[in-house]
Amino acid sequence: METVNNTSGFVFLAFSDLHYNHAVLFSILLVIYALTWTANLLLIISIILSAQLHTPMYFFLGNLSVVDSSFSTVTVPKLLSSILRGGTSISFLGCFLQMYFLVFLGTTESFLLSVMAFDRYLAVCTPLHYVSLMNNKVMLMMNISCWMASSLHSLLHTYTLSQLKYCEDRLIPHFFCDVTSLLKLSCSGTTLAELLLYTEGSMVITIPLTLILISYVAIASAIMKLKTSSSRSKAFSSCSSHLMVISLFYGTIIFIYIRPPSNYSSQYDRIVSMAYTIITPMLNAFIYSLRNQDVKQAMKKLIMQGFSPS
Question: What is the pTM of this model?
């Protein structure tokens, strides 16, 4: 096929090839987007203003809320526009900026979840040394490392794909600029981009996930050694919310990206992609808010005090 100038844009198919009620889907997504921002913003404000939440775990949780609200913003407004118009275009620069932020934020979330697992490991397995091991300097360095490493990773993939030549058919069968979708549209060699995707790209998912699994094996072992059931229940409850968020995030990511290219189905991928780009950012805040007594008490206290610092 003929190639087009890389200043030309792309067109999102979104869900225009599927039969659905546009008004209902638009309304549902708008409500989810509003809830995502409201829940995450309330969680961030609570962490900032509540002295009892000034701990490493809630510091990382605050960063996770920033990632989730931003992640949703990168995709939902454009998707809402696509639903209203039955498909929408995006410029070449806009497409790769969107890809950069999606990969950047998704990778940051993966790293933050692994750091939070390590934090829980220290809290449960080495409680007497937790404060000295997870001090402010260590906490800040780990947080900065998550953001910087994610930025470099995203820049590498975005730059590599932006250098490819794209075919005359510029229709993206998705609602955002997805790495695999753009690889299919390329008329030039994609060997390097695919190599990066299935090696370095997979590593930013598998390595954090492996560290999380190792941390929780150690945590489970430590919890089982506790003498009383109340102690075991309390230790497990401090990790349960994090485990639910991990399951939601990695479950959808692995389903979409870590599988052979022949198994890709654009319709299923679009639906599953909604889970980690739209649904999960909302659920994360509610999981941590509704299942965490400290957060619920802090929110209730702040609301009663008119959001004045405690």
Answer: 0.89
